[in-house]
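User: quick one, sequence for these tokens?
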């Protein structure tokens, strides 16, 4: 056989093989070249192909075809430290993009990427790529603080100044403002329309024009407003939406009651926080003669007023959800509705959607009805008042004496429903919530832990029961519907959790692809009184998927519920409003045309609602982080007790009793050189074997707190003694600590930003390079016609 023919056969054999690589023996067998002379020729030919870079050998000496980059489209998500990830398919792992391979992509851009390295399942390393091109720029405008140039600088540069973005993911950029249009005062918070994006030589610079001045940085509440606008959350309703809300009557007419069941004679109450203004759920409980419980859950019928083709509905869809921030609520629908005709205020008739359930002593729902109704609540109860009644506070019991028996029945039923959920395996993560108290100027003055008493938990139990019942009802009717789903954890994340638990000596029942919520609930129960409890809870939470909305029912893994939807909060969540609209629609029309229409419409509603929910959560977290950092800035130098909440290769995070979290960077832990033990989330000193793990008690001192970056730094003073872990082997010791990845190192590297690319350099400095004018000067003075953004 000629050498050329053998080459072609080798390449064809490698392409046809089921495996990515073949040993020489396997290749010889494929080509039928097992005789000694043939085998020698095969080896020589493969060696020649390797020199020609047509084939290559892997670490195990197996022959493989060279990796060919794959070009695909995805959405770029930028990390504040410069690197990023590209999402190609929400169901698949993201592609890592190193800092030097982002090609100036910004957060949210639609990009084309080359996949340079495929995922390695054995080393748990994900795929890696580089951005080839940017197809669409997501960020068209930014919100930030304006820094004004003086008169001489404006004359020299044709720029008014620059804007520093408020969004953390864009914080490294400066947006230079062309000397045209609005010229705000120094310190103004502004909206900038981007006209030029980062490019070679100007990696951290953008250009733009100011389109709106929101206010000044020193105005009360401007810090929160900046975050809200930066997230793209609308802060006011358009005039046409306000006009539409004013046209809705503020009282119920007789015509509104047609086709509704009248429940105004029933003893029904709302139970909410003392400061709640939009009361969208009301409940009643009574004991039936057969020993079962009757539970009525009545929800404000917002969809009756926010009709399908109205401007109110369009605006509610766009917003997707209300946003709850430290000192304000940004509502999904105008407050005239949410606090008025749609709020189940006491002693006035209100239109509702009702789900009535008969529940046996084992917590099984044996009968239910879902219908349109009208109610009139007997009382507006608060959680604190209900908890006081259940604690037999004499004054509160006397004040609400007519309702007291019902609240004791509610407690009974709640305990039955809660036990039922536990029995089927619902996973209960106890999460501490904090409420930040601010003064009239918006400054944080205290952080209080929210306590969840029986009053809060029983309302949760009743809402869960109604949500499950409604979801099951329409699923069994096989009608298009919207569900709240929480899918089973992905196999690779479960395998990581199994490995982690095994390293702590904890045996988890089940396999990575068949593990049930009950198996995981059992793990939490087994370790709840052990030192490992905190770290197991943390790792299990990280293994879970994110809940979302879907037109397909996949059940709710965390609740161990086969059917689940959101029915109970239509004032603040658009999917709940849609569920009500579907209930009304299907009660009148279940034709094929109606089913087709909703089957086509619901996927977009589910996807958009999930995205708007994530946007709201991000804004809420940003505001909380900022206010906590502002609160701790007044306490720099003070000492606190806390526990280790997370351990990373670049340091440890400490959570204080008030839920504030700060970091101790590895570079500040000078008592030893520490190794990161990934499978146990621990740091171990090489010389002292001092060990730091999640859940360990420590005492710290606050050294820095920056509301702008949301970063809080601690100094370690003392640490609880815990059993030491083994120091990794010599091979790991040779891997000296590298600065990449840590927050502090990120700050250090920021010192270099702009040294060769920042447009804030003086003209004189830039002219010294090949005598060219500064880029921004030529652009600002002469707008180049037809230049495209990006």
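Assistant:
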């Amino acid at each position: 056989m000629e050498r050329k023919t053998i080459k072609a056969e080798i390449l064809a054999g490698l392409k046809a093989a089921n495996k990515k690589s073949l040993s020489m023996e396997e290749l010889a067998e494929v080509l039928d070249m097992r005789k000694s002379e043939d085998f020698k020729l095969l080896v020589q030919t493969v060696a020649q192909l390797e020199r020609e870079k047509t084939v290559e050998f892997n670490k195990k000496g197996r022959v493989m075809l060279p990796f060919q980059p794959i070009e695909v489209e995805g959405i770029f998500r930028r990390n504040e430290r410069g690197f990023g990830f590209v999402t190609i398919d929400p169901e698949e792992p993201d592609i890592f993009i190193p800092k030097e391979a982002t090609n100036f992509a910004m957060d949210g851009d639609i990009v084309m990427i080359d996949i340079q390295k495929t995922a390695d399942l054995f080393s748990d390393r994900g795929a890696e790529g580089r951005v080839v091109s940017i197809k669409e720029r997501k960020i068209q405008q930014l919100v930030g603080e304006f820094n004004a140039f003086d008169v001489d600088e404006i004359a020299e540069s044709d720029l008014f100044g620059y804007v520093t973005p408020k969004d953390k993911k864009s914080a490294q950029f400066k947006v230079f403002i062309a000397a045209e249009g609005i010229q705000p005062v120094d310190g103004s918070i502004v909206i900038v329309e981007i006209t030029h994006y980062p490019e070679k030589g100007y990696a951290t610079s953008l250009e733009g024009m100011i389109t709106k001045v929101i206010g000044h940085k020193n105005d009360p509440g401007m810090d929160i407003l900046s975050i809200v606008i930066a997230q793209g959350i609308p802060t006011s309703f358009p005039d046409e939406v306000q006009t539409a809300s004013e046209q809705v009557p503020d009282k119920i007419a007789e015509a509104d009651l047609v086709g509704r069941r009248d429940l105004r004679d029933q003893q029904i109450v709302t139970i909410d926080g003392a400061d709640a203004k939009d009361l969208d759920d009301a409940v009643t409980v009574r004991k039936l003669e057969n020993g079962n419980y009757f539970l009525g859950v009545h929800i404000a019928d917002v969809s009756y007023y926010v009709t399908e083709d109205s401007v109110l509905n369009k605006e509610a869809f766009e917003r997707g959800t209300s946003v709850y921030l430290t000192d304000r609520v940004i509502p999904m629908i105008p407050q005239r509705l949410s606090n008025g005709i749609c709020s189940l205020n006491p002693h006035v008739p209100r239109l509702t959607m009702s789900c009535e359930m008969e529940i046996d002593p084992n917590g099984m729902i044996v009968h239910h009805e879902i219908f349109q109704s009208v109610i009139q609540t007997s009382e507006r109860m608060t959680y604190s008042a209900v908890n006081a009644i259940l604690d037999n506070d004499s004054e509160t019991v006397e004040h609400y004496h007519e309702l007291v028996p019902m609240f004791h029945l509610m407690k009974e039923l709640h305990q039955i429903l809660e036990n039922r959920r536990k029995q089927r395996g619902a996973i209960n993560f106890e999460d501490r919530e904090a409420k930040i108290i601010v003064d009239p100027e918006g400054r944080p003055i205290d952080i209080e832990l929210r306590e969840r008493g029986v009053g809060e938990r029983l309302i949760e139990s009743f809402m869960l029961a109604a949500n499950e019942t409604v979801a099951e009802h329409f699923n069994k009717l096989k009608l298009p519907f919207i569900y709240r789903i929480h899918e089973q954890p992905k196999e690779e994340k479960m395998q990581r959790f199994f490995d982690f638990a095994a390293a702590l000596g904890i045996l988890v029942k089940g396999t990575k692809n068949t593990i049930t919520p009950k198996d995981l609930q059992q793990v939490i129960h087994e370790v709840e009184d052990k030192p490992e409890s905190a770290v197991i809870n943390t790792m299990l939470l990280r293994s879970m998927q994110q809940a979302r909305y879907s037109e397909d029912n996949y059940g709710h893994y965390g609740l161990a519920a086969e059917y689940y939807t959101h029915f109970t909060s239509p004032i603040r969540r658009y999917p709940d409003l849609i569920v009500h609209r579907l209930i009304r629609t299907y009660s009148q029309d279940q034709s094929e045309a109606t089913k087709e229409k909703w089957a086509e419409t619901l996927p977009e509603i589910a996807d958009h609602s999930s995205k708007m929910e994530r946007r709201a959560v991000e804004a809420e977290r940003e505001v909380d982080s900022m206010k906590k950092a502002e609160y701790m800035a007044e306490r720099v130098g003070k000492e606190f007790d806390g526990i280790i909440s997370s351990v990373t290769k670049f340091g440890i995070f400490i959570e204080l009793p008030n839920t504030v979290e700060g970091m101790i960077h590895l570079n500040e832990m000078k008592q030893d050189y520490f190794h990161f033990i990934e499978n146990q989330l621990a740091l171990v000193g090489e010389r002292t074997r001092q060990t730091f793990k999640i859940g360990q008690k420590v005492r710290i001192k606050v050294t820095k707190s920056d509301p702008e970056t949301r970063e809080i730094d601690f100094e370690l003073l003392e640490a609880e003694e815990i059993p030491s872990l083994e120091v990794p082997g010599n091979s790991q010791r040779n891997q000296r600590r590298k600065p990449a990845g840590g927050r502090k190192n990120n700050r250090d590297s920021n010192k270099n930003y702009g040294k060769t690319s920042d447009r804030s350099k003086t003209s004189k400095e830039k002219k010294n390079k090949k005598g060219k004018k500064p880029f921004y000067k030529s652009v600002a003075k002469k707008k180049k016609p037809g230049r495209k953004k990006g």
